[in-house]
UniProtKB/TrEMBL annotation:
Annotated localization: Cytoplasm
Source organism of the structure: Selenomonas sputigena (strain ATCC 35185 / DSM 20758 / CCUG 44933 / VPI D19B-28)
Family assignment from sequence similarity: Belongs to the TRAFAC class OBG-HflX-like GTPase superfamily. HflX GTPase family.
Subunit structure: Monomer. Associates with the 50S ribosomal subunit.
Domain of life (superkingdom): Bacteria
UniProt name for this protein: GTPase HflX
Predominant cellular place of this UniProt entry's protein: cytoplasm
Length: 647
């Protein structure tokens, strides 16, 4: 039935070798698997005896269609149609290297190209163990137009057999035929989440909370979460992060659920990511990559885009150096987006150059911002910066306080770029309020670094308003996470006022993670005061309409969070507590100030101008000799004007 032909240098082969080679045709390989242990062992055994390369060619049904001895690159495969420019040939080559050095040689790679193999493996024995390397196309082209080849290994040969070839081949074909451009962007991304539950870890967060947040991040990035895997494990497996059994279980699940990516809650090493990709056959992302992807989608301004691109480059650099990440680069979608479309395809030198350029550009932006800030400082306008966990309600608060129109949304990282608005406090003082990017636990360092330029607004502010979502059960941990990031920025010691937000969500008795639209239920709970306040929208709250918080019975959860912290409770949505908040801010700026009454002779009129710049002039009168000014000044400034002081 089958033509048991053996091609190549078979002239001097002993009959028992020929018989052995011919009997290899009777073996078969499970569909979607590279090779089998038996096939590998028998190939290596023959090679060791004859000292020559042996190659078998396997089709996608797992049948051996050709066998050759000697140089694989001269082999003639009539069954292989390698003419198609847009598809792989459907045949893979598994061959031995007599030396045990299994790196694919240049001739190996050119025969991979010539015959457009699904994949090409080289196997051999090294210190008694079967090892191998795999080469395959990425679907991308090199600069010179030839197809880019990805190399994997050397690894143990049985490891190669665990690679799931089918999805790999599909992705490559898809990429080759360029269907992907439109198709995969519209295709639903079906995500599986994964994490480990380390009982001994000092992690503050409950694994479930952290994974719930990861699901929220995945949703924000546009994925549908189809399953979650948590494994109890003291520490991550160095090769696969999870245990081998768990990974196998996951592979089944992925197949059944048609999942397209797996997102891990912790940062993976480049090799874990590569191994998992090979074992699971789908794109593998970690929390960092997911956050970077969201940032990439959200970046609007030039500065925002640059900063995201910088962070992405820094993230991908070690991963490109360490080969792999093939599937994560194929097919577009989550994890592959970014301001620089080709970012993951450029080689490392180009990446380094680009990093250098961006850093220069960011440095320029930084200087520009510094100038702005200096101008503001010269104008003596104090600055309050809103900081806090993502989704805490910072932008909503800025809008409520200043009537600004900043985009606020019930998704993570709605804001990336800072917005500054001025606010006139009840005592007439004008301050600037800055809203900026939210923080999150395990915020990638690369991102914090990259965002230094915009986060400097925070570092330079006079006071931080730390907005906390009190309706979130993890509020205490979120405060902790924000504090960590502030430390990293060198802003942890700044004066801070805690602003416990979303009070309306707790006062309806639902507590905890209750319904999102709690405010709507407030009046049915007999506490209509918030509603009355809320009806007067953004920025327009006037005193008297709003209940003083002292009258309001604060829920125990809020009291707990306030313990030992300076701050107040508000609802940015309904406006409750905003007057108190403004009063707190005003009183902060008042302390450390003194009120003076000065008399400045007309001959020194320039001092009056300086006074207007240096402090807040409350009252001005004139007499025949000069100007009488009542003014509030910082202690420092006051010292310079003391000589004019009267009474
Ligand atoms: N119930 C209630 N919801 C609020 C309140 N303040 C904000 N929200 C909602 O919380 C969600 C997040 O608000 P944002 O203002 O976008 O939060 P943020 O802190 O700016 O978030 P990022 O920019 O993503 O870091 C939105 O859906 C708001 O409508 C509040 O006082 N009560
Ligand atoms: Mg925001």
């Amino acid at each position: 039935m089958k033509d048991k032909r053996i091609q190549g240098e078979i002239q001097n082969l002993k009959p028992h070798i020929m018989r052995e080679l011919q009997s290899l045709y009777d073996l078969s390989v499970p569909v979607g698997q590279l090779s089998t242990k038996e096939l590998n062992e028998r190939l290596i055994a023959v090679t060791e005896e004859i000292g020559r390369e042996v190659a078998v060619y396997v089709d996608r049904k797992g049948r051996i269609i050709e066998i050759s001895v000697g140089n694989t690159w001269t082999v003639d495969l009539p069954a292989v149609d390698a003419r198609s420019e847009v598809r792989l040939s459907g045949v893979r080559c598994i061959h031995t290297h007599p030396s045990g050095d299994t790196e694919l040689s240049d001739p190996d790679i050119s025969s991979l190209r010539r015959l457009r193999f699904d994949a090409m493996a080289a196997i051999g024995r090294l210190s008694g163990e079967s090892v191998g390397c795999l080469g395959f196309f990425t679907g991308e082209k090199e600069e010179d137009g030839t197809l880019e080849v990805q190399l994997f290994g050397p690894v143990r040969a049985d490891h190669l057999n665990r690679i799931r070839l089918t999805p790999l081949i599909q992705s490559i074909n898809k990429r080759l035929s360029r269907e992907r451009t439109q198709a995969t962007d519209d295709e639903e991304e079906r995500a599986v989440l994964a994490g480990i539950d380390a009982p001994m870890a000092c992690a503050l967060w409950m694994t479930e909370d952290s994974l719930a947040e990861l699901a929220e991040l995945a949703r924000t990035a546009g994925a549908t979460v189809v399953g979650t895997f948590i494994q109890k494990k003291a520490k991550p497996d160095t090769a696969l992060f999870l245990g081998r059994g768990k990974v196998e279980e996951m592979a089944m699940f992925i197949q059944n659920e048609r999942a397209t990516l797996v997102i891990f809650d912790d940062e993976l090493t480049p090799s874990q990511q590569r191994n998992l990709e090979m074992a699971l056959g789908v794109k593998i992302l970690d929390r960092t990559a997911l956050i970077l992807d969201i940032f990439a989608q959200r970046a609007r301004t030039a500065a925002g885009k640059l900063q995201v691109e910088l962070a992405q480059m820094k993230y991908s650099l070690p991963r490109i150096l360490g080969q792999g990440l093939v599937l994560s680069r194929l097919g577009g979608g989550i994890g592959t987006r970014g301001p620089g479309e080709t970012k993951l395809e450029v080689d490392r030198r180009r990446i380094r150059r680009r990093i250098h350029d961006i850093e220069g550009e960011i440095e320029r932006l930084k200087k520009e911002r510094l100038l702005h800030r200096e101008r503001r400082r010269a104008a003596r306008i104090p600055v309050a910066a809103l900081v806090g966990y993502t989704n805490a309600g910072k932008s909503t608060l800025l809008n409520a306080l200043t009537g600004a129109d900043v985009f606020a949304e019930d998704k993570l990282f709605a804001t990336l770029d800072p917005t500054t608005r001025s606010l006139r406090l009840a005592d007439g003082r004008e301050i600037l309020v800055t809203d900026t990017v939210g923080f999150i636990q395990k915020l990638p360092h690369t991102l914090v670094q990259a965002f230094h330029a915009t986060l400097e607004e925070v570092v330079e502010a006079d006071i931080l308003l730390h907005v906390v979502d009190v309706s979130n059960e993890a509020a205490e941990f979120q405060i902790e996470a924000v504090t960590e990031v502030l430390k990293e920025l060198g802003a942890a010691e700044k004066p801070m006022l805690y602003v416990l937000n979303k009070l309306d969500r707790l006062t309806n008795g639902a507590g905890g993670t209750g319904g999102g639209e709690a405010a709507a239920h407030v009046d049915t709970m007999g506490d209509a005061r918030y509603e009355a306040a809320g009806s007067d929208a953004a920025g327009g709250f006037s005193e008297g309409e709003i209940p003083s918080l002292e009258e309001v019975h604060l829920p125990p959860a809020v009291l707990r969070l306030l313990r030992g912290r300076e701050g107040c409770a508000i609802s940015a949505r309904t406006g409750a507590g905003l007057v108190e908040l403004q009063e707190r801010i005003a009183s902060f700026f008042r302390t450390g100030e003194v009120e003076l009454t000065l008399h400045i002779p007309f001959t020194e009129n320039a001092a009056v101008t300086r006074l207007h710049e240096a402090g807040r002039v409350l009252q001005t009168d004139y007499d025949e000799r000069g100007t009488r000014v009542r003014v509030r000044l910082s202690e420092e400034e006051a010292a310079r004007f003391r000589r004019y002081e009267i009474s």
